[in-house]
Amino acid sequence: MLNSQEAVLLPDSPRLTTNNFDLLRLLFAGTVCLVHAYQLSEYQPLAWIDSVLSTRVAVEAFFVVSGFLIFMSYERSSSNTTYASKRIRRIYPAYFVAVMLCAVGLLGVSSNSVTDYFTVSWVGYVVANLSFLNFFQHTLPGVFETNPVNTVNGALWTLKIEVMFYLSVPLFVMLFRRFGTLAVLAIAYVGSISYVVLFAWLAEKTGDSVYLRLGRQLPGQLSFFCAGAFFYYQLKFFERWAGYFLAGAILVLIFDSYWLFPLFEPFALATVVIFFALFFYLGNFGKYGDFSYGIYILHFPVLQVFVHYGWLADDPWLYLAAGALTTLVMAVAMWHLVEKRFLLRSSHYVSASRSPVEKGGDPK
């Protein structure tokens, strides 16, 4: 995709092949699962989870990792077609299965009859969700009506943003070549922050929380993606000054508890995430596969089913353990039966499964 003169400018480091990205994604997905276990059940013994862990931070960290790895994947692709193929193979097969498992499998949970279940509303759910437009239809007929939350799979809202990020990468790289990487990333970053601040102001001004929800959509999350991209393209500089970057980021995040630093918070979070991804290697967590995606797209309906039937409601801790374990088992099955079968041979996970240290495979 690049000529030889441009390719020389791309970062090259052993940390691009020996890192903790797989572990971090697993931790982020697990965080979202644990927090949702409380939020969906409202079992008070689990309330501490919601005060200690944050789905918002976990999702933002996911976007940081995507910014780093997706730009690297694009730069290593031989063409736009190859890049698109890798992205579709990685994200859509499992996504399709997750949507259809809910659409068909949750008939048994619905309070409606078969004829009242497979209606226009059901078709609307399938079409909206398979096209990543989850906000158009997030419920199924008669499903989870008595649950505190009746959304079938509330975790899927981030996937449309992820897909938009994928689509934006070729445009970003084209602009990088024309105007410079730092200039383009800075403009996109500040524009994203400005969008978030504007909608936060509108929410406060009007008292309408819909503006806060809109602020979480694109381009509100773009700052995290751009911050991740910055650390990929400026990897050598970051490696040289990593300690200073980390110290500054920690200060920003600490003082953010007292003063709002919207301009610096995404970059500070990205600094911490990328630092722990690249330094202090903890082992090949991709050796047996990437279960983080399966955990993320499956945990919500799994937990909803537990809540619907009241399984282990008298023992919230056992409910938490059983829900998490069920999700993990399903994620492992999703990996081996669906996800792995669509990957190219150049995939990181194909090579990682053969060796403790991945050697040259595509990062995502």
TrEMBL record:
InterPro entries: Acyl_transf_3_dom, Acyltransferase_3. Residues 20-334 form the Acyltransferase domain. It comes from the Bacteria. The chain crosses the membrane at residues 23-41, 53-72, 92-110, 117-136, 156-175, 182-203, 218-235, 242-261, 267-286, 293-311, 317-338. One of its GO terms (cellular component) is membrane. The keyword Repeat does not apply. One of its GO terms (molecular function) is acyltransferase activity, transferring groups other than amino-acyl groups. Pfam families: Acyl_transf_3. Keywords: Acyltransferase, Membrane, Transferase, Transmembrane, Transmembrane helix. GO terms for biological process: polysaccharide biosynthetic process. PANTHER family: ACETYLTRANSFERASE, ACYL_TRANSF_3 DOMAIN-CONTAINING PROTEIN. This is Acyltransferase.
